[in-house]
Give the backbone structure.
Amino acid sequence: MPQFDTTYFASQLFWLYASFIVLFILLSVFALPKIGGVLEERQKRIAGDLDKAAQLKHEAEAAIAAYEKALAESRAQAHKIMQDNAKAIAEAADARNKAIGDKLAKQIKEGEGRILAAKDEALGHIREISTELVRASVEKLTGQSVDDAQAEAAVTAALGGKA
Amino acid sequence: MANPVEQFKIEPIVPLEIGGVNVSFTNSSLFMVVAVVLATAFLTLSVKGRALVPGRWQSMAELMYEFVANMIRDNVGTEGRKYFPFVFTLFMFVLFGNLLGMIPYTFTYTSHIAVTFGLAIVIFIGVTIIGFARHGTHYLRMFFPHGAPLATAIILVPIELISYCSRPFSLAIRLFANMTVGHIILKVMAGFIIMLGIAGIAPMVFLGGVTVLEFGIALLQAYVFTILTCIYLHDAIHMH
Amino acid sequence: MGMGIRVGVELIAGIAVGSLIGYGLDRWLGTKPWLLLVFFFLGAAASVLNIYRAVHGLDDSVGLGQAQRRKRK
């Protein structure tokens, strides 16, 4: 086998080390930093993109939060307005009710006063009517006339001495 | 039929002698130079555009870079970073040697024991130096298993020591043997096909299969050579 | 094919290195041929150790115990 022919061992080793060292220098000076740079750049770019995406996401989340806050606020405001309105309406209704009630109460009171007056008046006429009635009845029953004073005295006695 | 080992013959191209030593520029040297040129061209031109979205060549260069970088990270750890250029060069040198050899009429320098041993011994010596530089004589502790009775040291230590020293040999012989056997098989089969003429169709299909297999072996052996270097480095750096 | 080559390589490498060390020590200490014999067998043992590792898929780190520990990890 030619592999075990020692004639060219020295030449093989010499050229092996020479070419290996040249390749080592070429790669470590030119090729590897370049490839490493490209990979690093891409890595950085990807990381940057990710950062940006994260930032955008953050912003979107903030926007959503703001929107939701505004929504909640306006909802609360609407609620408040509704409540206020309801309160105002209720108050107005109360006021009107009260006014009507007052008015009615006043009218009732007036009516009562009038009734009382009418009653008093009627009661006041009772004596007169009774006296007249007494006189007429006596006249009819006995046939003799009774003067007013007598009749009145009788009525007063019948009413219990109250005149 | 051509002699299947004829392909391994070294032919001097430019006879050269330095200090009485024959260092002729041979066909083997030529292919080493070709590998250096191709590897450098491949790794520099492919990333010339520095494209953010890589093309086919750039992807391949990046793939190899990350392949070796991951290999070092997984097997050596972060401290292995400074050996990256060396390991990468080693990987490229062996890989291109193996792959160039797959082209008909080329010379496979990795099928020469002198070359593979030349690489392996450098790794072996380098790793041993790193080990002793980092751990001093404590590095010798590696050769005795933890927890074994002290009396067994007299037999275990020499065995582990021989096992350690056989590493460059096994590393070198493995690469050499794989490449040599593969190329002999290919050559013998190609010879058969030529001899058989028309009837050579069937072995031709088989030859295609074997060629694919040889490509796999070319890649695998470059990987094995590199990963073993990483494992040795790990031992020298970390030492349990 | 890979494993076959691997086993053969380990066998050759271990015995060769052992014998080489034995031969060197013999020449140095003038104990021919005893150390060569001893180291031939130590080399064979190392070969077996390495083959055992290869067959069991252990990595090539120094020391069998370590390799086993690493595999378990």
Summary: Chain C touches chain B through 31 residues (CB under 8 Å). Residues 2-29 of chain C form the longest helix (28 residues).
